[in-house]
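HOLO CASE FILE
Compound: gibberellin A4
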Amino acid sequence: MEQFSITKNCTTLFHGFPLIDLSKPDSKSQLVHACEEFGFFKVVNHGVPIKFMSELESEAVKFFSLPLSAKEKAGPPDPFGYGNKKIGSNGDVGWVEYLLLTTNTESDYQKFASIFGEAAEKFRCAVNDYLSAVKKMACQILEILADGLKIQPRNVFSKLLMDEQSDSVFRMNHYPPCPEIDQESNGGNLIGFGEHTDPQIISVLRSNNTSGLQISLKDGNWISIPPDQYSFFINVGDSLQVMTNGRFKSVRHRVVTNSPKSRLSMIYFGGPPLSEKIAPLPSLMKGEDSLYKEFTWFEYKKSVYNSRLADNRLGLFEKI
Ligand code: GA4
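Model generated. Tokens follow.
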């Protein structure tokens, strides 16, 4: 694939995937095109203060540098808390340790405060500053997308993230440097986080400057995404795919650990309230039938937690 190319509606492709400048007025059609063709794009001029990004990264580095026995006090994930190698509860594993947090309750921090004392407060502030800025950007993107799709009101998607009951998740992943011996026995690549799509509406990922993230293109080929610690990478989630009746695609992605450097990533998964019906928006259907059976986010989530990482989770909800 070409390094740089211009598609017919001017989406700039960078290393084969879209790069969107949020400060440019023509970002609307580029965003829609990126969600249709890739379900994935990189965002620059995003308005999130770099300070919030670097402060949270240093808090995360401090946490993951603690002895395993200390970190394990914040685990196992139920589904929130500290996890190591095991992903979910159905047998998936990866070369990764992580922290999974809710975004709108205090309970995670009470758990942390009881384990880490005063340090938990600094951590909590860094998470809150970061998340409120990232959520604002995610909502801005969702509103531009609604405009681009000519849907009204323009907050149809973003209101789900803004809802007090929004079931959103925050995840920090640490991929330790990969021992050469393990790498060799796996043909140079060890799976950090196996391939999957994200179940929610939209995911916003930021990482340090270590590579590893790969996305699957429509033709099934995988491409590596060069890291950029100052930008964000956005994934369309399964729920947004359903709400657009398949027009936007949730992207399959994975992390391989082939680097002697450790990789740190932080991902905000913007989800709807549990009671929300996830169905195609009538104004997008224009006479076409829904591709999906009706379900609530609660029902979908239940099915998600019974699945393996690589499963085609939406398959169960497709109309035949
Ligand atoms: C993938 C996206 C998010 O990281 C996540 C993951 C969740 C978990 O780690 O607990 C799941 C995975 C994710 C989908 C299938 C199930 C549940 C692990 C797993 C094997 C927090 C989410 O919402 O779904």
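CASE NOTES: Confidence is low (pLDDT under 50) at residues 1-11. The two ends are 35 Å apart (CA to CA).
CLOSED: yes
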